[in-house]
Write a structure and sequence with these properties.
The protein is mostly helical. The chain contains 15 helices and no strands. Helix 1 packs across helix 5 and helix 7 packs antiparallel against helix 8. It holds the Pfam family MBOAT_2.
Amino acid sequence: MLFASPLIPNNVQHYPRPPTYEFPDLPAADRASFWLIPISLALQQITLAIIGPLPKTSPIRTLLPAIVVPIVIGIGIQATLFSHHLTSPVVNFGYGTAAISITLQGIDILFVIPWRYEIPLTELLQVAEKPCPTINPTWRQRFDWSGACMNNPRMLNTPFEPALLKKRREKVAGTSKRRFLVTRLAKVVMVWVLIDFLLAWCRYDLWFGSATHHMALPDTILSGALRTIFGGSAIWMAVDSEHALCAIICVGVFGQDHSNWPDLFGIWTEEWYTIAEFWGIAWHGLFRQQFTFLTTTVSSRILRVVIPFLLSGVLHFSGAYMQSRDGVEAMMFLILQPIGILAQQWVIGREGVRGKGLGVKILVWISTMVWLIATGYGFVKTYAKGGMFNIEPIPISFLSLLGVVEGKAWRYGGAMEHFGWY
């Protein structure tokens, strides 16, 4: 029984959620591999600092990336395939996705962009806070600039910034700093409460901890759909709340420009109806540049749709593989998305629902949600298999404090168990 009330006593046993996984025989932790990603980042920053002020005619700008990029790719492969079980499911997933995103960023910023443009990179990727002159820059200026570039994966304030992101940034710039901080704080509190409810359900439905648990509810079309929706909601809550919390700290404490913290998601603030609009507008774009940079090298419309999802599939495979040594279903979810996008566009046209009536928009939106839920079940199941939903990220459960759900009100004691070194 999930909720308690004066008429329905909350007498169901609360099952503690230790860090157990579907694959208990995973090898021992390979902690030394944790340093592979920092090594890759340092190598990329040093290389970018050297080639940044150089024109394309410079042999160093051509030869150095030709040497460094294969090393970066090798480090990414090593980190993805041979690192495992570092700490918790969340850290495992973060490490796996970081290994791929940082590798793709290195290929883009050290190889593809220098190959496409003649001018020095310091002129192309200008950073107002960390200027780096093309003529006689100091090494301090070079490294400050290259570090700022590496710390800007969404390419804010650069020629590669997506139009949607620029629009969101301008919208944020039009609000006061005080209002920005208040709205972000309200978002964190709102998501905190929503996560509390979600965790209550995940503790009730043991499928989220282990699909093979003998007390897990049986799979039906309805339960599978609910699990997919709740799992996807958990991803939105986690990513959006972390971004809002970082924005509060960076803007409120360190004084960063709040216009550089535009919204990640457009689920509740912008119109979207089609599958393409879900991925382009509603969902977060943290890795958009890393997924789309190769599309500039092809002219085929189909490849421009397929390539980003192939790279996204590799990234999510890496994160899931790091958790449980199984990421095929997570990867297949992303690889299937171009099929849905192209099929939907074939039926309703490439212009989508622009200029169409409300009834058509609702039907298209329903078809989009049916597609995402149907294809996303295996994705969420892979996350559950890796122990992702065992983590309790909030320190205090208001629902437990009020006696609405079972379990302790103070949650961090249990959560910290997941962050030990095994």
